[in-house]
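Render this sequence as a predicted structure.
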Amino acid sequence: MCMGVIYNTSKDRKPEDLITMTEASKTFITILAVLILFIALHSPGQAAVLTHGPMIGHTTDTTTRIWIRADGPCKMQVRLTSKDETFVSETIRLVRKDNFCGSAEVTGLSPRTTYSYRVSLDNKEQLCPVKQQLTTFPREGEQCVIRIGFGHSLRGEGAQRIWDAIGGKRPDLFILMGDNIYSNSTEPGKQRRMYLQFRADPHFRAFGATTPVYAVWDDHDYGLDNSDRTQPGKERSLKTFNEVWPNPKSQALHCPGIWNCFTIGCVEFFLLDVRYHRSPNEDPDGSAKTMLGAEQLDWLKNSLADTSAVFKFPVSGSSWNCGGPEAWNHTFKYEYDSLLAHIRTKRIKGVILLGGDQHMCKIAVRPRESWDGYDLHEWMAGQLWNSKGDREKGYFRAFGLVTVDTNEKPAKAHLEFFDLNGQPHQGRRILYTELGALRSLLDSPQGVTGVSQGNRRYIDRLRPGTSGKLWEILPFTTGETLTEHDLSWP
């Protein structure tokens, strides 16, 4: 009837007919616009497509998570196949509030099994320029060989070719140790742009599609330089971090944070959050000053005591033994000592520290006499991606590779450093006597330091004025091997 009014061409139309026609025209145009929009949104040519990824996240002996980003809202699903089996993941929705990012979990897999996989958006399989394949891990507690790559600090422009070298070493997983972007901001828009720039790099994309990647954060991907719990907008950084990293489920129960853990064979990793609850560096050291916050510190202590893993790797975006205002052993001595006292009381063996932030490959050792334990080793790998200015300072792209072999007796953890081209890379070996003190001073050539034997126990007081010169005489190394006996109690 309305259409009849609209197309009525009679010359003797009354005014009320014109009003009716105008209203009908508006109704018709509205219906038509809605119809066109519906068709456009559901047209095959407008279907969502994969823009970033896939990237493999947290993986176990029977599960895995696959992360992607699409260009619009859609439903995501992953299909895995091996010689004998096919598995389909849960279906998840990718939505605007998460920047169309998400990860789907696949369960029921078999240990130590290689699968090919494909991602579908709205039931349409996505084309991808990289190999899509993953291998599940050994069972928890199983004796095996595990290869762990690690590194930190991705800043600068240009191709990230180091991922080709890392992939060439065939690690079973890779841990990013913080400063994974240099946003120096909590703004989601800026952080997302930088994360997606990183994920779009073809070298990383090929690596992440075949190797599980885990991550912690440090100051530059959490907020401003040297930021702490007072950082405004930190809850935005937390949300963005969770959008892009398919880590294990956070163990934070009563307060926000990113800390978590996972086990592969006889090795357990504790991924720490050293920013969200961190006290300002300038606060006086003592029981009220914290790097982790009370809940996370209790969780770490209890987890270290409860695990039966042969080797235990606490992973920190800030260095443990290597000094400076951001390090555990300088401005957070009280909490660090409380953690070591717990390790000593519970006689926890097999602890090797992984630390970030330092931009160079280093091994920093806190000797047994400084805490009545065993020699406590911290392994640090250099930065993964740098700018021209970094290279002028002597910072070169490098990464670490840890091979843990629990088939051997005694079990061994072997560290190696490699450069951008996958060739052995030299790092520095730093030995500490007391907190913040260089043990290498005690073994340095006669006359180099000008420190008498009687004053060497107080060498930490002299370190600020001497560390620059001492750095040049520290021994080089390309790695080391520790056995479970090296990290055990008498």
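Summary. The chain has three domains: 2-45, 49-132, 137-490. Residues 15-41 form the longest helix (27 residues).
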